[in-house]
Design brief:
mainly alpha; 81% helix
Length: 176
Amino acid sequence: MKITPSQIREKKFKISLRGYNRKEVSEFLYSLADLCENLLKTNKDISQELDKLRKVVEGYREKEKKLEELLLSAQKSAQLINKSSQEKAELIVKEAEIKAKKIISEEEKKLERIREEIFRLSKQKKLFLIKVRSLIKAHSELLDFYEEEPSENSSLLSSKSLPSPSFQKEKISFEE
């Protein structure tokens, strides 16, 4: 049963012989009605405030849900970016390895050509030294021949018939 403050104020009791003091009962009922009215007003205000807070909480729940969705989306994006970065890094490393192998291969070919050139030049050097030694030896023998004493030369001249010097031309070649 719901009793309103106005019902409390308007309530009339029957009078009996030894009943309560009317003035005290009326004052009590009016104070009780005021108290009830204040309680109802406070209850209504609290209910309205509760409704507002429920709406605010609901708004926060919606924002929380959106934030969770954004967080999941950001995590997925971060994972995709991380995976993509790793794939790019692996690709760069593979490309670098391929380039390094190519450079090493080219440098090994250059090194082999240089070694072959060194070997060829070494052979040429040996051949040149042999030619120079033989040339020096030939000139040394020629010098020795011209430095011999005249008696030896004259005996050679008398024993051999040499054509006259005006007709004799001697060619000296430095080629082998």
